[in-house]
Write a structure and sequence with these properties.
single chain; alpha/beta; Rossmann fold; 7-stranded mixed beta sheet; 16% strand
Amino acid sequence: MNTDTEGRTAQVNIPQPLKGIRVVDLTIAGAGPSCTKLLCEAGAEVIWVEAPRGASTREVHKYDFYTAGKKNICINLKTPEGRRFIEKAIAEADVFVSNYRPKGLESLRLTYEDVKAIRPDIIYARLTGYGELGPDRNSPGYDPVAFWARGGMMRDIAEKGSLIVPPIAVGDISSGAILFGGICAALVRRMTTGEGSYVSTSLYANSIYFNHDALIELQYGEEYPKSRRSPRRALLNTYRCGDGKWIAISVAADWDRYFHPLMKVLGLSEYDPEGKYTCAEDTMYENAPAVVELLDRGFAAIDSEEAQRRLKSIDVPYSMVGGTADILTDPQAIANGYILEREATVPPAEGQRMITVPAGPLKFDTQVYGTTIHTKGPRLGENTAQILAEAGFSEEEIRDMLARGIARDAGAEEN
C-alpha cells in the first residue's frame, strides 16, 4: 500500500463496479453522505458540492468516514456562476443525490423537474427526514428524531419503563445504504431502457421498515415495550452468567428442537415434571416468563465460558453480549477485514494519528468495499479550481470567483 506525502491516499486493488459513473453529491449531515460514500467506494466519481461556509459534515469526527475519496468543490450555487457550474455538472452526470429539504432544492432550482430538464436520463436520488408529502415534508429530520423517536424504536426496543439513548447515525447509514441500492437498481434500469429515474427514501420510512416485526406483531396482540423477564419467546432473550457476563440466545423457530436439549445441558432436566411447559406454538408465549426464571437460574450457576461450551454442544445460536469497544480487538472482525486503520483528519489525541474505522460492509469479487483508495476526506474546496476548469471556466474566471468569495479553493487559500 502506497501513501502520498500527506497520508491522503493509499493505492490498493479494489473492485470498482461503478467505474465510469459520475455523481453530483449535494448532501449534508450523515444520511446523504453515507449514500454517496458507498457510491464512491464502488468506483463512482463523486463530486461533492459544498457551500462556501462549509458543510456540517466537517464538524464531526466521522468526517473522513463519510467523505474519503470524494472530489470537493466549494461554490455558492445561488450566484450566476454557481448556476452555470451546477448545470454543466448535471449535464455530464449520471446520478444526482441530495438530502436537502424540498424548500431548499426549490430555492436552488434543483427539483427533479429542474434537473431532468438539464439531463433527461439522470438518476435523481433524494433522502429526506419524513418523506416528500404530508405535513412534515419540510421539517428538519435527523437520525435521533426521524428514525429513532418517530419510528417507535427509541421506546419499544428499550426495557419496559425506559428509553434507549440511540447510537447516532445508525438510521443515517442504514437509510443511505437503502438509497444506494435504489440508485444501483435505477442504473440497471437505465441500461435496459435508456430512461432515468426518481429514487427516494426517508429516515422515517426506513425506521418503519426496520421496525416491521413489532409493527406487525402488535396487531396480533403483542404489547411493546417488553421486558427481558417477559419476552415474546424465552429462547430469544439475554441471560446473565455466573461471572456477570451476559449471553444472548436466538431461537425464533424450531422451539421443540432446542428447548429440551437446552434444559438438559443447563442442568434443568427436572424443570417440567408435569409437562407444564409444552413446546406447542400456542403456549410458548404465555409460558415465557416462567421459562425465563428457569433459564436465569441455569445460566447463573455457570460462568460464561462454560455456558458457551454447553450451547455449542447443542448448536444453539448465541453470542456473548459485547460492547462497541470489543469490536476493536474482535478476531472475527479483523479476519474478515471489517475494521481498518486509517489516518484521521482530526486525530483523537496528540501523537495519535491513526484510528480504527469500519470497512464497507459489502464484498465484491471476494474483496471488501471500503479498503478504499483514500484515507482522508477532502479539504474545503480541495478540487474547486480543477472542477471549474473541467466545467469550462477560464483561469481568469476562476481567479475572479475565488477573489469575490463565490468559490473557495483550499490550495489557493494556503498560498
